[in-house]
């Protein structure tokens, strides 16, 4: 996935109200407010002075012209836009990075299913049947080369796991794809100390037959590219 138009760079002043951040732009030194498309805590990614990269919109109806896309933390570029992982997961599937999912005949995004929910990706095939794919963004790191999810309590994420289990019981295939938007990790682990409820739901889903995989991305100022799978460890 390439950024077009090109991102603009700056330094983070502060993130606040979850969806806003103040940034000093590198090109002219002006301070602007940008949108932050991330509902999580962004632990480790909000230090004042951190290098950041923003996308720019010319839509006159938008209140904030800029959107926070990338933060540099511990020398690594980290994607923070939680609106991108579905697109990145689709790219990974079509590139053959995610098991055999690329062999399904059709791929649709944001399809209704379960109890008043939407599945991120629905795969259908006349022979293989249906595969329900839920996608989560990962950017939290505490240990060396170890990504973790979630970085805060996510009741919605636990509900999604239970609904995937229901799809398996109905005879379909279901999978969790964790999109790791940073390239300095070799493994993914669930944060059992930060959200025990989510992790219990993950365990139930695994026992029910829900599959899981983690796909790591390479990130530059110009693009984010899924490039390999990494193990999920306990």
TrEMBL record:
<dbReference type="Pfam" id="PF17746">
    <property type="entry name" value="SfsA_N"/>
</dbReference>
<dbReference type="InterPro" id="IPR005224">
    <property type="entry name" value="SfsA"/>
</dbReference>
<comment type="similarity">
    <text>Belongs to the SfsA family.</text>
</comment>
<dbReference type="InterPro" id="IPR041465">
    <property type="entry name" value="SfsA_N"/>
</dbReference>
<protein>
    <recommendedName>
        <fullName>Sugar fermentation stimulation protein homolog</fullName>
    </recommendedName>
</protein>
<feature type="domain" description="Sugar fermentation stimulation protein C-terminal">
    <location>
        <begin position="84"/>
        <end position="222"/>
    </location>
</feature>
<feature type="domain" description="SfsA N-terminal OB">
    <location>
        <begin position="13"/>
        <end position="80"/>
    </location>
</feature>
<dbReference type="InterPro" id="IPR040452">
    <property type="entry name" value="SfsA_C"/>
</dbReference>
<dbReference type="Pfam" id="PF03749">
    <property type="entry name" value="SfsA"/>
</dbReference>
<dbReference type="GO" id="GO:0003677">
    <property type="term" value="F:DNA binding"/>
</dbReference>
């Amino acid at each position: 996935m390439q950024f077009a138009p090109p991102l603009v760079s700056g330094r983070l002043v502060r993130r606040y109200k979850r969806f806003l951040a103040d940034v000093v732009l590198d090109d002219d030194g002006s301070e602007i407010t940008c949108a932050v498309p991330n509902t999580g805590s962004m632990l480790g990614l909000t230090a004042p002075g951190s290098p950041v990269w923003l996308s720019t919109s010319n839509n006159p109806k938008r209140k904030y012209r800029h959107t926070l896309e990338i933060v540099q933390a511990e020398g690594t570029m980290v994607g923070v836009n939680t609106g991108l992982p579905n697109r990145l997961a689709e790219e990974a599937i079509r590139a053959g990075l995610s098991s055999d999912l690329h062999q399904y005949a059709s791929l649709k995004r944001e399809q209704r299913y379960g109890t008043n929910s939407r599945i991120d990706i629905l795969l259908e095939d006349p022979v293989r049947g249906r595969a329900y794919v839920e996608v989560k963004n990962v950017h939290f790191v505490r240990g060396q080369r170890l990504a973790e999810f979630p970085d805060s309590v996510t009741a919605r994420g636990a509900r999604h796991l239970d609904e995937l289990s229901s799809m398996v019981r109905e005879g379909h295939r279901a999978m969790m794809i964790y999109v790791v938007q940073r390239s300095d990790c070799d493994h993914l682990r669930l944060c059992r100390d930060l959200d025990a409820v989510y992790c219990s739901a993950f365990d139930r889903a695994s026992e029910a037959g829900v599959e899981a995989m983690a796909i790591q991305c390479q990130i530059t100022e110009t693009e984010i590219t899924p490039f390999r799978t990494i193990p999920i460890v306990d």
